[in-house]
Amino acid sequence: MSARPSNRAPDEMRTVTLERGVARYAEGSCLVKFGETHVLVTASVEERAPGWLRGSGKGWVTAEYSMLPRATHERTRREVTSGKPSGRTQEIQRLIGRSLRSVVDLRGLAERQITVDCDVIQADGGTRTASITGAWVALNDCLNWMMTRQMISVNPLRQNLAAVSCGIVGGVPVLDLDYAEDSTAQTDANFVITGTGGIVEVQGTAEGAPFSEDELFGMMQLAKKGVAELVALQKQAVA
To answer: N or C terminus: which one in the chain shows less Cβ crowding within 10 Å?
Structure first.
């Protein structure tokens, strides 16, 4: 394999930063950067759960995802002008929502809903994995905000959660693909993993020839390494 476009080692993440408290009015917020992929994440609490949870004593965590018109090389139309989100947008926001719910005790929210909004400011590959990683920080801050106001007695987040992409590029498993690699990878995969190593979701697609079980295992090992680094950054950010 020739050098990666970014000159990183196969197991090397892009530079990742997590900046909290960037949205003045949101109960929780985080500006997450995976290299040149930048996502603004906010978490907002509502004093009501979805109607279908009424009387259950449980709350809900949901997510919305969007990409600003000039987040990419060419302007894309705002999805509001077409009247509905694209299939890709719906798939990503559902992924973010169910990933977050996997580490939240929903009964600890009582009958309230937290909406996590992920707005991509600049895209260079891995927007969904950056969104999930930053969403955990924004959600944690939102829950702590609720605790300081006696809305909840304990933080219902059970553990950390982060996500990272991996792929097969030039026949070699690599970690945290940027767009240059993502657009040419033979295999593209996303891994959502908890702070204790539990697997929440794996999305993997062969863009050319099918990938082998050994290649899947290689990507999984890279993903666990990357998520461990991301979780360490999360803990440092919220300390």
So the answer is: C
Q: Among positive and negative, which fits the CA dihedral 228, 26, 93, 152? A: positive
Which amino acid is located at 171 in the chain? G
According to the annotation, is 128 in a ligand binding site? yes
Known binding residue 94? Answer is no
C-alpha to C-alpha distances, 97 to 60, 93, 117, 196, nearest whole angstrom: 9, 6, 10, 19
Q: What's the pLDDT at 63? A: 98
**What is the rounded CA–CA span in Å between residue 89 and residue 103?**
22
pLDDT for 107-124, tens place per residue?
A: 999 999 999 999 999 999
2 pLDDT band (50/70/90 cuts)? low
Q: Is residue 127 part of an annotated ligand binding site?
A: yes
The verdict on whether residue 77 carries a ligand-binding annotation is no
Give the contacts of 215 (CB within 8 A, at least 6 positions apart).
168, 173, 187
Strands 161-169 vs 172-175: parallel, antiparallel or unpaired: antiparallel
* CB 15 within 8 Å of CB 226: no
